[in-house]
Predict the structure of Glycosidases.
Amino acid sequence: MAQEFSTRFARHKDELEWLFMELYHNREGLEVLEREMAEAYNARSAELKALDKARSADPEWYKQGNMFGMTMYTDLFAGNLKELAKKLPYLKEQKLTYLHLMPLLQMPHPHNDGGYAVEDFDTVDPALGTNKDLENLTRELRKAGISLCLDFVMNHTASTHRWAMAAKAGDPWFQAYYHLYEDRTIPDQYEQTVPQVFPNTAPGNFTWCEEMHKWVLTTFHDYQWDLNYANPAVFVDMTKSILHLANLGVEVFRIDAVPYIWKQLGTTCRNLPQVHTIVRMLRMVLECVCPAVILKGEVVMAPKELAAYFGTPEKPECHMLYNVSTMVNLWGALASRDTRLLKAQLDALHALPDNCWFVNYLRCHDDIGWGLDEAVEKRLGIDPQKHKEYLYHFYEGNFPGSWAKGELYNYDPATGDARSCGTTASLCGVEQALEKNDKTALDYAVKRDLLLHTAMAFLQGFPMLNCGDEIAQLNGWDYKNDPDRVEDSRNLHRSKFNWEDAKRRTRKDTLQNQLWQGMEQLRQMRADPCFAPDAWVTTWDSHNPGVLALVRKRGEETLVGLFNFTEYPAGASLDALGGEYHTPEGTSVWLADVELEPYQALLVKNK
């Protein structure tokens, strides 16, 4: 066993043993896990071990101001992994440091929930390439300074995974990998306390399996079988798969649906303490075997639930989380021309401990779920239900004066609940303006788009673009003509990358060039020392609900961002931030009395 691994393992051995034995009371399982860790370290390439050494010397590498990410589907962007590698110059042109590829492990076709139903956690889907293609891609990305992030679907497997198939065939070892029941007694008890994720499209939390004559726990869709993490073999096998992918060069794992992974009767089966034990063990395993690799949690919960997923500075869990709440509140502020909810939500995030770090974004593969803080809404005199209905109808384009073009997702007429789909550009009004050939409306739409991106990139954490946003990609309505895709309105913003539009990015006075240049300005903004990992970030009272004020401070340097979320000129006054500030162009600004243009993002600095 190499010295590096021995040293790192010695640091974590006692805690790992304590947590594993406390959870599983299974010494044999612990020994299997430790063997898998040693084997994974020995199989790790010299190049990746060198990366481990460099990252160990710079553990906050992912918090640097130059971090700039993008998320995409391999097939929609380039067809497959080999072709994606050929598109690397396009990614380098954007100075990306982080690339999140949507699920690409072997999956059933056509119904796979966008790749989140996995048939084999160790193998790339043949439609996208081979493991060798993935390894070659990660090597080329590393040369370009880009870290690859992949989803790791922790909660469930596809119902066609070899474990599930063995369970269906009656193998008791693999039946223990899932939650199976011969009658409805226990499932009915679960249903009393466990919320439904998709009450309309996938009602209930259990699915009858005719082959086994048993009920299977299926939190999401009927073809996604929940894994039983009370079985140590499940944890060990899933950890083995993560290490295998890490050795192919994956540097970041987005652990999907992590709050759901532990099930306990009489609870909501969300955010249970055992979840944190599992994530903590996983973090330690990675720190021993491949410390260059980090964890990004998908935790779609209120801010008060988030801190626990980072662990503590002494016993950390996730390195970073998706900033879902701010994404939703940014869109809410734009439609309502009111930043008060957004400010309150950011204040809640800024109150979290210093070890909390976020990936900020506007759009991704998923919908916009209008999970706003109802207590804050009521305190501000906002009716939560009416506000939610206003927002999703507004972004559907089904509200007087709406500039947006989108669609509803999972509309429930009984509860009045719905989510929203669409690309950033289409939701900001670009698509509607182009259809009407309205130059003024297009100008405003671009300003909205850039306003949101600038505010998002100013936040604590680092920004991640949705592929196509950099060239104002519009909705892909052609999904309605595909019988395999028509049932899921999220496919509206999951369309093939428009390479013809991308060619226009260098042509002045084109829509694509405006957005391309706007993204470059974001990168220039984030080169400022006030975007260092140790910068202090806070909101400020602008004395105007339509204007969001954010302050970044590091040492004697202060950077202020003012964001006008309205289509009208707006004034702002920032108390106690006296003195003279300057725009990047050198214009003097006094923060006691600032005038902003419609949808303007104004950045000023004290030096």
About this structure: The two ends are 53 Å apart (CA to CA). Residues 3-24 form the longest helix (22 residues).
